[in-house]
Amino acid sequence: VSLAAQPYIGSLIAFSSNGTVLWWTRVSPQPKANDGVSVLSRYLHGLSYDYAAKQIVLLGQSLCPNADSGPGFWQGNQVAFNRSATGFLSGFSGDCRNYYISWLGKVDARNGTLQAWYVCYPIIVFDILRPPDFNCKLFSTYVSELDFEEDRFTEMSSNSNLSGWPNPNQKDPRLKYTETTCASSMRVDVQGRVYIICTGKRFVVLPSLSFPFQRKKKH
Amino acid sequence: VNEVPTTISWMYFAQNVLPYMESLAWDMTTDGRILFVESNVAPFSADVNGYKAVRVIGPNGASQSFPALYEGRLELMNGTGILGCPLRSRTQSDFQLVASDLNGGNRVGRMPLDEFYDKPCDPTVPDMGPDSSNPYTGLQLVYNNPRVQSILINRLSGEFYALLHHMVRCDRDPNGGSRFCLVFLKIACELFLTV
Q1: How do residues A169-193 score in pLDDT, each as one tens digit?
Q2: Out of B149, B159, B186, whose CB is closest to A16?
Q3: pTM higher than 0.90 for the full model?
Q4: What residues form DSSP beta bridges with B168?
Q5: CA B68 remoteness from chain centre
Q6: Per DSSP, what are the bridge partners of residue B27?
Q7: How large is the ipTM?
């Protein structure tokens, strides 16, 4: 076995000010021996603190998770803290082609529990002059560019801020790499809003975007 | 810096073996203490005798000028050593403790690194190396030296958080099965594209 082919597992460990381990999490299910699924590489690259909500913000990367390949990070619609929650992009969708895709999540700084958060559109805060909509709840979310070689979008989002773009949790849209492009560059402002920088060929844009050629054609 | 910088107040040579372009994990408190990861071994190296620990530097640049907070090496019971026993359970009951995984499921092992080893850590032989897999998870380390990706201090509480990356084997299973590994396919694709 080539050592370069071994997967990595990222973990978050919280310590008290005197160095005692308080809690720890991998923000993903613990594998079980002989369960027949692979061990996905799951990196945690970004670490920041939301002082408004006393939550820790994590930016990770995972190989595309599906039923055969084993679980990735906890999905936005599998948050025990709030079972009715959905993330902006709750889980991986499309065909698993060994892509690395990114993930954002928040955990409670007191105990490590995966948490609810209240920022919408973390996918790319492209136009910072227009802050995102703060009325929608988000928990954990995947972050990825969209593959438009095969358009599996049919249902437009009812959210006016998406400007005619489809709901990313509908119709199995195909996701592609974020690879190293959403690496560790993440910041959190005093209100708990999360900012990341990624590169991608196609991504959802808000109606205020300065470059109209990137806008989605209306159906 | 609150005036024109004209001199250096202090300098501390931090020991850490890092590959090219990999950055040292560090953060600082509001009262001028700096935490960083000190290590004499590279991430994912095979040296079982290395040490890796979170160290604090005081505002005057002197290491250990504060109480032994954050201090830890291989054999220290109460420090934040990263290798050896500090992040592993010492007793069988802690090692096989079933607890919440913090999102509605369960996990085995009280301490963060239990799931990579086949038994609790023996402080008299603290660093046994990655020679066997955990019976509950099937996970086994390739190398016991992790990468500490980053350190973050909570500036209100003084608590701090660390991101660790461990390299695990995907070809071992304690029950005779084998885990497959999607990483292989990705590596193969990259080789193809390179050619």
Answers
A1: 777 777 776 655 676 678 888 888 8
A2: B159
A3: no
A4: B141
A5: 19
A6: B35
A7: 0.81
